Amino acid sequence: MRRLLSVLTALWIGLACAPAQAADLPTFTLRFKADGTFEPATLEVPAGRFKIELINESNEPVEFESIPLRKEKVLGPGVKSFVVITISRPGEYPFFDDFHQNVKGTLVVKPKD
Fold first, then answer.
1. 46 near 110, Cβ under 8 Å?
2. What's the burial of 52, exposed, middle or buried (CB within 10 Å: 0-12/13-18/19+)?
3. Cα separation of 87 and 104, whole Å?
4. Which residues of the chain have pLDDT under 50?
5. What is the C-alpha separation between 56 and 3, in angstroms, rounded?
6. I need a labelling partner for 104 at 20 to 30 A (CA). Which of 29, 48, 53, 69 fits?
7. CA distance linking residue 41 with residue 33, whole number of Å
């Protein structure tokens, strides 16, 4: 019983700290503009773990999607959210708005200093 209590306590502490860890990550902003573009269209980030704050400034739903990064996030009009990405390999990773597939951008991952 004591061992189970210790495991549950450790799990609870780990879950309670998770939001704080996401808040401490390097954060970059990507906006979905009302004119149907990303701002910036090319987002440069360092290799490692980081957060991209997604802001939908349009009047339509949008979906951030990147097949190579295996990330997607739907945002309603005027909604703000985020995705956390961990990537160690420098390179260029395309992303797009799945609801408006002609709207594309590139995540450029730079080597860590």
1. yes
2. buried
3. 20
4. 4, 7-8, 17-18, 20
5. 46
6. 48
7. 11
**Burial class for 49, CB neighbours closer than 10 Å (0-12, 13-18, 19+):** middle
Using one digit for the tens of pLDDT, what is the confidence trace for 49-72?
A: 999 999 999 999 999 999 999 999
| Nearest-angstrom CA–CA distance, 108 and 90 | 7
pLDDT of residue 21: 55
This prediction has a pTM of 0.76
Structure tokens at 70: 């295996």
Q: What angle do CA 69, 55, 57 make, to 5 degrees?
A: 130
How far apart, in whole angstroms, are the C-alpha atoms of residue 62 and residue 65?
10
